[in-house]
């Protein structure tokens, strides 16, 4: 029984040291004196991985034997962030490991910094999936996360001459110690070709799909350990490879080069992560990716069910599958295909199983984000799935027809197929029809879902709709990110229970007025600001002053998120500080972070403008002691971990109705930042939770936005009615920030004046007034500190542990299954 070897499983300092030394020698094949930083990281990672394995295998075995109901999370993205630190914390051996390192002459901080984070996601949606995996394991819910093992995750961002430049993410280049490839867990995935009817042995009519291309998915497994428990769940990511049989076919005709070509084509499928925040144009490779991971995952679930439970009629009792947005919506048709074509079920029982299996989360209302696929592409790539979708649609529309007495307009609106010049498959409709539950990610978002994009579905099936407001992991976003705050919270609470019940932080409320505690609180914040300042200086050479107010906007760059509203405020301040010697608000450092989708020209221009304003402001001795502007390159989980703890002010300034939830808003507030925000997404609920007096609110409400749009919004009227705003926009147009080039930022200013789709100008005045109030409050440091403490004390609801509990109880009907060590 290798699971009793103390070098493999022991949690003492001596065991860790011995294991590290062994691993460096036997796995990395190195003597200590020639070991590289990566060798040392790998030896440390394997030391920790060994300690996960017993828990992981035990969990798997116990779940299997007990027949526990299992949640399968289907997501095209997992933005995991570094594993090592998280696993050390969840095993409860962070300090022991630090000491073990010290005795070996190694700095744990350096080892941790060596890890390349798996950036297998774009932003909020992918990070949510990672937080959910953390909370599922911590909540002891048996779960499998299914996704794609992208060889290249989200690009690394460099800034050159103020512009974003994309560099390929090579996270696998030094090896990935956390994954275990499972070369025997593979499934064929079919593409192209045609279908044909045939009679089976019982004389029933069945359909056979003769593919034009078969690709194989290979499982790559990563254990996800819960915090303070022995439960470890499975993250199973699929890598695409060419099938052997396919190679042989080509080889036998002597066409070696064609065989190699086919291999490359197959492996392309899991090569690279697509931006999810570009208008959903019909990219064949993207549809290939979606079907690839969905097909492997559903085949795997069916295999597991047959191997453990048996008959397929109990499939939906054993499994529930959550569709993380529409990217995995093909799962509905794929499960039908497997039940019908491979297992010979009739339509009705197959549909009953399918429909009881899936639940669907919507993550955005933006119309341009709704995925639809041209029928022509769909039919060519996935002929059998299209037939099944047509049949789902035929039966569904029959139901609608009877229910609404042949209301043709409604039928057209509900159809899975959008008619028009090019007919398209509506993935959200497929997901909705195939699911027993549909949920939005914040209260406002769910309400809007019911009244806008999913209105007809809500009228049809009101009971299927739920709200589950997002949450984030307190392990990742406090314990890992902000050690000092974690220590302070533990000392206040008397134990570490808050790490898995974040509402325990309510205890802080009694200290909100305590002067001594205020000092501790401010010391923690200052230390985080100092750490960020030192990192930034080392990384970019930019110096920032930790004594200034750190005002941070870190998130994907998008017009709807309105980084340019923030910029208008900054340019306004710059202008006033220069012209009015009396005007001296408290010194501020404006920090921006975020990536722009590579093809999103306006977002890239916004990055350029941030850097251009930074160059002028920071280079101007008249103002640079008062305001400073910094673009922090390559915002990702790792750099986020530096930014969240250091923020005094969190910018959550999207146009009301556009940000489905937001999760950065929660991460900042959890770290004691105060929020300036609109009534959008989860901001609304955060404000209710922390108290409106502890939240800086501004801007139009969603209802007002609709009213203004209906009345005919004319941004130029606002420009002409607000001289300060006009000066700011004219200044941007003047070439001041572009070495005299008056045209560089025209696309941006022109768009604001002519269209302003996200009503930046309409909210400008309210935003600036709110910022002025913030300047006032910040000068009253006792008041600010009190507000900051109360934010943290009352943020408990926004833990992903709570979100997972709600999914578990209301939607998945899953129960915790504790594992003993
Ligand atoms: C897609 C597109 C495509 C067209 C251009 C504009 C645009 C903007 C955003 C997206 C992303 C869609 C999916 C997504 O990432 N949603 C995010 O999900 C988070 C987790 O629920 C949530 O907190 C964010 O508010 C939401 O934007």
From TrEMBL:
Query: What role does this protein play?
Result: Phosphorylase is an important allosteric enzyme in carbohydrate metabolism. Enzymes from different sources differ in their regulatory mechanisms and in their natural substrates. However, all known phosphorylases share catalytic and structural properties. Allosteric enzyme that catalyzes the rate-limiting step in glycogen catabolism, the phosphorolytic cleavage of glycogen to produce glucose-1-phosphate, and plays a central role in maintaining cellular and organismal glucose homeostasis.
NCBIfam families assigned to the protein according to its UniProt record, in alphabetical order: P_ylase
EC number(s) stated in the UniProt entry for this protein:
2.4.1.1
Known catalysed reaction(s)? [(1->4)-alpha-D-glucosyl](n) + phosphate = [(1->4)-alpha-D-glucosyl](n-1) + alpha-D-glucose 1-phosphate
* Cofactor(s) this protein requires: pyridoxal 5'-phosphate
Which organism is this protein's natural source? Answer: Thioalkalicoccus limnaeus
Read off the InterPro entries from this record.
Glycg_phsphrylas, Glyco_trans_35, Pyridoxal_P_attach_site
Q: What is this protein called?
A: Alpha-1,4 glucan phosphorylase
Origin organism lineage: Bacteria, Pseudomonadati, Pseudomonadota, Gammaproteobacteria, Chromatiales
């Amino acid at each position: 029984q290798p699971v009793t070897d103390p070098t493999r499983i022991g949690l003492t300092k001596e065991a860790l040291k011995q294991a590290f030394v062994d691993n460096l020698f036997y796995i990395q094949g190195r003597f200590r004196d020639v070991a590289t930083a990566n060798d040392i990281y790998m030896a440390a990672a394997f030391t920790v991985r060994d300690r996960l394995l017993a828990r992981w295998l035990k969990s798997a075995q116990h779940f299997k034997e007990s027949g526990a109901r299992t949640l399968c999370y289907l997501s095209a993205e997992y933005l995991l962030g570094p594993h090592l630190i998280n696993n050390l914390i969840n095993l409860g051996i962070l300090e022991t490991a630090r000491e073990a390192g010290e005795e070996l002459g190694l700095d744990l901080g350096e080892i941790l910094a060596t890890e390349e984070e798996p950036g297998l996601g774009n932003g909020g949606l992918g990070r949510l999936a990672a937080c959910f995996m953390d909370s599922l394991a911590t909540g002891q819910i048996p779960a499998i996360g299914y996704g794609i093992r992208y060889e290249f995750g989200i690009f690394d961002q460099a800034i050159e001459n103020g512009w974003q430049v994309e560099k390929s993410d090579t996270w696998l280049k030094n090896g990935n110690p956390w994954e275990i490839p499972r070369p025997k867990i593979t499934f064929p995935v079919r593409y192209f070709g045609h279908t044909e009817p045939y009679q089976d042995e019982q004389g029933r009519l069945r359909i056979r799909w003769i593919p034009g291309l078969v690709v194989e998915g290979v499982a790559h497994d990563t254990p996800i350990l819960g915090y303070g428990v022995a439960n470890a769940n499975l993250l199973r990511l699929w890598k695409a490879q060419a099938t052997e049989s396919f190679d042989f076919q080509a080889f036998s005709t002597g066409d070696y080069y064609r065989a190699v070509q086919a291999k490359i084509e197959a492996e392309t499928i899991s090569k690279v992560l697509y931006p999810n925040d570009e208008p959903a144009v019909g990219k064949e490779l993207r549809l290939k990716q979606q079907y690839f991971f969905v097909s492997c995952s559903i085949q795997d679930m069916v295999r597991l069910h047959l191997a453990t439970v048996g008959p397929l009629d109990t499939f939906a009792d054993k499994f529930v599958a959550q569709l993380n947005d529409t990217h995995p919506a093909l799962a509905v048709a794929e499960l039908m295909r497997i039940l019908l074509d491979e297992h010979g079920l009739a339509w009705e029982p197959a549909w009953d199983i399918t429909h009881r299996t899936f639940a669907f989360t919507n993550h955005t209302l933006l119309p341009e984000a709704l995925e639809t696929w041209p029928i022509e592409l769909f039919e060519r790539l996935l002929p059998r799935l299209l037939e099944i979708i047509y049949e789902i649609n035929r039966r569904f529309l029959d139901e609608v027809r009877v229910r609404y007495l042949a209301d043709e307009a409604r039928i057209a609106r509900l159809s899975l197929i959008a008619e028009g010049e090019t007919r398209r498959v509506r993935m959200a409709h497929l997901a909705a029809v195939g699911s027993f539950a549909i949920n939005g990610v914040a209260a406002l978002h769910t309400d809007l879902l019911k009244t806008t994009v999913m209105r007809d579905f809500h009228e049809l099936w009101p009971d299927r709709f739920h709200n589950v407001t997002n949450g984030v992991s307190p392990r990742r976003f406090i314990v890992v990110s902000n050690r000092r705050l974690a220590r302070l919270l533990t000392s206040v609470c008397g134990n570490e229970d808050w790490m898995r019940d974040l509402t325990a932080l309510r205890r802080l409320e009694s200290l909100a007025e305590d002067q001594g505690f205020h000092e501790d609180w401010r010391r923690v914040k200052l230390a985080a600001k100092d750490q960020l300042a030192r990192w930034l200086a080392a990384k970019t050479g930019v110096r920032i002053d930790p004594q200034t107010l750190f005002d941070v906007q870190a998130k994907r760059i998008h017009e709807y998120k309105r980084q340019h509203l923030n910029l208008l405020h900054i340019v306004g301040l710059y202008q006033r500080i220069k012209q009015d010697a009396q005007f001296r608000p408290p010194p501020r450092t404006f920090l921006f972070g975020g990536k722009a989708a590579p093809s999103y020209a306006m977002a890239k221009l916004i990055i350029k403008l941030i850097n251009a304003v930074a160059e002028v402001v920071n280079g101007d001795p008249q103002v640079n002691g008062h305001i400073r502007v910094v673009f922090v390159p390559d915002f990702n989980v790792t750099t986020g971990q530096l930014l969240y703890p250091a923020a005094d002010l969190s910018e959550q300034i999207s146009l009301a109705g556009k940000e489905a939830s937001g999760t950065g808003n929660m991460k900042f507030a959890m770290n004691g930042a105060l929020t300036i925000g609109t009534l959008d997404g989860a901001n609304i609920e955060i404000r209710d939770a922390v108290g409106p007096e502890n939240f800086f609110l501004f801007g139009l409400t969603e209802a007002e936005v609709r009213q203004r749009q209906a009345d005919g919004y004319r941004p130029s009227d606002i420009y002409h009615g607000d001289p300060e705003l006009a000066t700011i926009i004219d200044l941007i147009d003047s070439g001041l920030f572009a070495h005299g080039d008056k045209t560089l930022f025209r696309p941006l200013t022109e768009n604001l004046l002519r269209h302003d789709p996200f009503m930046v100008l309409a909210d400008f005045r309210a935003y600036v007034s709110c910022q002025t109030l913030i300047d006032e409050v910040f000068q009253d440091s006792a008041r600010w500190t009190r507000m900051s403490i109360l934010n943290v004390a009352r943020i408990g609801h926004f833990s992903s542990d709570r979100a997972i509990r709600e999914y578990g109880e209301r939607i998945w009907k899953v129960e915790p299954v504790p594992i003993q060590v």
